[in-house]
Design a protein that fits this description.
5-stranded antiparallel β-sheet, single chain, alpha+beta, DNA-binding, 15% strand
DNA sequence: GACGCGCGCCC
DNA sequence: GTACGGGCGCGCGTCC
C-alpha cells in the first residue's frame, strides 16, 4: 500500500464529504496531550495521511472553513477540542461538521455501544483487525516502555505503520458509516440530529469555559473533613481493635480498623461487639452485563446500619441524615443519646461508621478533584488560590438522551454539604441557575392528558395527591404526608412495584409493608387513572412496532420485557431533548450578539449560567424565553430562577419581575 | 491491572 | 412468579 506524506504538495480535495480522524498523544489536552497526525477519506475516493506540521495544519484549517464541504468526525467534540488547542477557531468554522457517533446515538438511543468497532460490525459488517493492532502493541510494549522512558506509551510511540493503518481505518470507516447513517437520520429525525449536531459546539464550549473553583476553600473543607474522619477512626479503633480478620489463607490481626471494608472489617467488627448480622445485600443491576449480579453479602448501607441501633439513636440518625448535621452536632448528640439512655457502647459502631463514610466520600469523590483537577491556578496577593475546572459533558451517553458529566462529575455535587461552597462566579458576574419546574411530572401529565394532574401541577401536586390519599384538606397535610405522596408520585412514574415502593418508603424513615405499598399504588391509580392507561398504551406500541418515539423524534428500542420503562423513557427523554434544544437556541443567540454570558453546566433539568452584571437585564428574559414552552404541551413547561452572587451553595430564589423597574 | 461489588451522591 | 428510571465514581477484594 502506498502512503503519501504531503511533504511538499498539499492535495486539493474534490470530494464534498470528507471524513477525518485525528490521533493524539492522549485524551486530555489540559494536561499536555496534543494531536500528532490525522487521516482523511473523501466521497470521491481521495484519501491520505498527514503528520501535524504547520503547513498541514494550515491546509486543514482552510478545508474546515470551506463552506462547500461536509466534514465528518467520529466524536467530533474530541477532534474539535484537540484542534482548538492547535489554535483553530472551531466555533466559527464555515464547513458543515458532522458526527457519526452522534448519528448512531440519535438513531438508536438504547444501544450501549457507539464506537467505530461496534458500528462497523453492525452497519458495515466490517473487518476490525486493523484497529486492534495498535492497542495490542501498546499493551505488549507497556512494561518495557515504562522502564526505559518512565511513562506509558501512547499512540504516537507506536510503529508508524500501525499508526497509519489505524487512523486510515478510522477515517474510512467514519466515511462509510456517514453515508449509511446520515440518510437514515435525515429521513427519520432530521431535526433531532440537527439539534444534536449543533449541541456538539455548545457542549465543547461549556467544557472549555470551565467553572471557577475556590481552591483555598476546597482545601480548608477537605482538611476539616479528613480531620474529623481521623477522629472517628481513632474512636472506632478503640471500640473494635485488635480485630481478627478471616482470609482464605488464614487469620490476620489488625490494629487499624477500616470502616470502608464491608466484606472483611465490618462483619468482623460487628461480630466482636456481639451484634448479630441480619441484613444481606440484594442483587443489583449491572450496566455492563445488563442483568442482576452480586448480592448475598452482609449489608452495611445506611438503612441497615440505622436498624442496628435502638430507637432513640436511630431516630437521631434519620434526622441527621435528612438535615445533614455538621460534625460537632452529630458527634455530641450521638454520644449524649448513648449516655442518656444507657445504650451499650457498641451502638456507637453503626453511627460512627455512617459519619466516617460520609466524610471520606466527601474527601475522595469531591474535594480531592476540586483541588487537583483545576488548571490555570492563580494565587491572589492575599494568598488565596483559585482555579478553573473543566469537566466533561457527554451528550450521547445516557439512553434516554440526557447529558452525563464526568471527570469530575459536576452533576452529582451534594446539595447540602460543602462542595458547592467551592463553586464561584468569575469577577463581575453571578451564577444563575434556571431549572424547569417538575418537568418530568409535567410530561407525564402531557402524555396522559390528565386534566386533574395538569391543574394541580402548577400549584402543589404532591400536596393535592396527599390530600386525596389521606382524605384530608390540603392545608392539613403534614410535611411527612406530603413527602410520602411525593415519593409515591415518583415511584409510580418509575414503574415500580409494591416491593420496591415498600423498601423505598422504609428507607426514607416511614416503615411500610408491601401490602400497604400496594394499597398506595392502587389508590394513586384511582386518583390519576390515565397514567396507567398511558403506560399500557406505550407498552402496546412497543410490542407492535418494536420501539417508541418521543416528540422530538428520538426512538427507544426497548426490549419487550422492559416495557415498564417506556413511560419513564418518554418523560425523561422528552425533557432532555427540550433542554437540549433550549441550550442550542441560547448558545447561538449569545454568540450572534457577542455577549459574554456563559453557559457553564447542564444538570438534567437545570442550566447554570455565568452572567456579567451588565448583561442581566438583556439576557435573563431571553434565556427564559428559550427554555419555557407554554403552548405546545398539555401543561405549560415553565422555569424557576435562582441566583448565587458569591457561591453556588448560597443560591437564592429570584423573581424575574424584580428585574423590571 | 482489570473487574465485580457495595455504597452513595445527583436529577 | 416478575420488575424502580437515568447517571458517575469511590475503595475494597479477588482473580489473572
Amino acid at each position: 500500500m502506498q502512503y503519501t506524506d504531503y511533504k511538499n504538495a498539499l492535495p486539493n480535495l474534490k470530494g464534498k464529504i470528507i471524513a477525518f480522524d485525528t490521533e493524539a498523544t492522549g485524551l486530555d489536552p489540559w494536561h499536555g496531550d496534543r494531536v500528532f497526525c490525522w487521516a482523511y477519506y473523501s466521497s470521491k475516493g481521495e484519501w491520505g495521511f498527514m503528520w501535524k506540521t504547520s503547513s498541514n495544519l494550515a491546509w486543514l484549517k482552510n478545508l474546515l472553513n470551506d463552506d462547500s464541504k461536509h466534514i465528518v468526525f467520529h466524536n467530533a467534540k474530541y477532534d474539535l477540542q484537540m484542534l482548538y488547542f492547535e489554535g483553530i477557531d472551531v466555533f466559527n468554522l464555515k464547513s458543515d461538521i458532522h458526527d457519526t457517533m452522534v448519528l448512531s446515538k440519535v438513531l438508536d438511543s438504547v444501544e450501549k455501544f457507539h464506537n467505530l468497532r461496534h458500528l462497523s460490525r453492525r452497519y458495515l459488517r466490517g473487518d476490525t483487525s486493523d484497529k486492534d493492532e495498535i492497542e495490542y502493541w501498546l499493551k505488549s510494549n507497556k512494561r518495557a516502555f515504562v522502564k526505559q522512558y518512565n511513562r506509558s506509551p501512547n499512540f504516537s510511540d507506536a510503529p508508524i505503520k500501525l499508526i497509519k493503518k489505524r487512523v486510515l481505518w478510522d477515517a474510512q470507516t467514519t466515511l462509510k458509516l456517514f453515508s449509511k447513517l446520515y440518510p437514515l437520520a435525515k429521513k427519520r429525525c432530521r431535526e433531532l440530529y440537527e439539534t444534536e449536531r449543533k449541541l456538539i459546539l455548545v457542549c465543547l464550549h461549556m467544557e472549555l469555559s470551565g467553572v471557577t473553583i475556590d481552591i483555598s476553600k476546597a482545601k480548608q473543607l477537605k482538611e476539616e473533613a479528613s480531620n474529623h474522619s481521623k477522629q472517628i477512626q481513632k474512636e472506632l479503633n478503640q471500640l473494635v481493635c485488635p480485630l481478627t480478620l478471616q482470609y482464605n489463607k488464614g487469620k490476620e490481626v489488625i490494629k487499624q480498623f477500616n470502616p470502608n471494608s464491608p466484606l472483611k472489617h465490618l462483619p468482623a467488627a460487628f461480630e466482636k461487639l456481639g451484634i448479630s448480622l441480619r441484613y444481606r445485600t440484594k442483587p443489583k443491576k449491572n450496566k455492563k452485563k445488563g442483568r442482576k449480579t452480586g448480592g448475598g453479602n452482609w449489608s452495611f448501607d445506611e438503612y441497615s446500619l440505622i436498624r442496628y441501633t435502638s430507637k432513640p439513636l436511630s431516630e437521631v440518625l434519620y434526622q441527621s441524615s435528612k438535615e445533614n448535621w455538621g460534625f460537632d452536632k452529630f458527634y455530641n448528640v450521638i454520644h449524649n443519646i448513648v449516655d442518656k439512655y444507657k445504650l451499650p457502647k457498641s451502638e456507637l459502631l453503626p453511627a460512627l461508621i455512617l459519619k466516617h463514610r460520609e466524610l471520606t466520600k466527601l474527601v475522595s469523590t469531591y474535594y480531592a478533584h476540586l483541588i487537583e483537577d483545576c488548571v490555570d491556578v492563580v494565587t491572589t496577593p492575599a494568598g488565596r488560590e483559585f482555579g478553573v475546572l473543566h469537566c466533561k459533558f457527554n451528550q450521547s451517553e445516557a439512553v434516554t438522551g440526557r447529558f452525563s458529566s464526568s471527570k469530575p462529575n459536576l452533576q452529582n455535587m451534594p446539595r447540602l454539604l460543602g462542595p458547592r461552597e467551592c463553586f464561584i462566579p468569575r469577577k463581575g458576574r453571578k451564577l444563575w441557575l434556571i431549572d424547569y419546574a417538575q418537568v418530568e411530572m409535567r410530561f407525564y401529565a402531557h402524555f396522559a392528558k390528565d386534566k386533574k394532574m395538569a391543574e394541580r401541577l402548577p400549584s402543589d401536586l404532591h400536596r393535592w395527591t396527599a390530600s386525596e390519599m389521606y382524605k384530608k384538606p390540603p392545608e392539613q397535610i403534614t410535611k411527612e404526608e406530603r413527602e410520602r405522596a411525593g415519593s409515591i408520585n415518583f415511584a409510580v412514574i418509575y414503574g415500580s412495584g409494591a416491593a420496591t415502593m415498600a423498601e423505598t418508603l422504609s428507607r426514607k424513615g416511614s416503615p411500610t409493608t408491601q401490602s400497604k405499598a400496594l394499597q398506595f399504588i392502587n389508590k394513586y391509580h384511582s386518583i390519576y387513572p390515565s397514567v396507567r392507561k398511558t403506560a399500557r398504551k406505550l407498552s402496546h406500541q412497543l410490542a407492535v412496532q418494536g420501539y417508541i418515539t418521543n416528540p422530538f423524534g428520538r426512538r427507544y428500542y426497548i426490549p419487550n420485557k422492559f416495557s415498564y420503562k417506556a413511560l419513564n423513557y418518554m418523560c425523561q427523554g422528552t425533557s432532555a431533548d427540550l433542554i437540549k434544544k433550549a441550550m442550542v437556541g441560547i448558545w447561538f443567540w449569545l454568540r450572534e450578539r457577542c455577549l459574554r454570558t456563559k453557559l457553564l453546566m447542564t444538570i438534567h433539568d437545570e442550566l447554570v449560567f455565568e452572567i456579567p452584571y451588565s448583561e442581566e437585564k438583556l439576557v435573563l428574559p431571553k434565556l427564559i424565553q428559550f427554555m419555557e414552552d407554554r403552548t405546545n404541551y398539555f401543561v405549560p413547561i415553565t422555569v424557576g430562577i435562582d441566583v448565587a452572587k458569591k457561591r453556588w451553595s448560597q443560591k437564592e430564589k429570584f423573581e424575574l419581575t424584580s428585574l423590571v423597574h
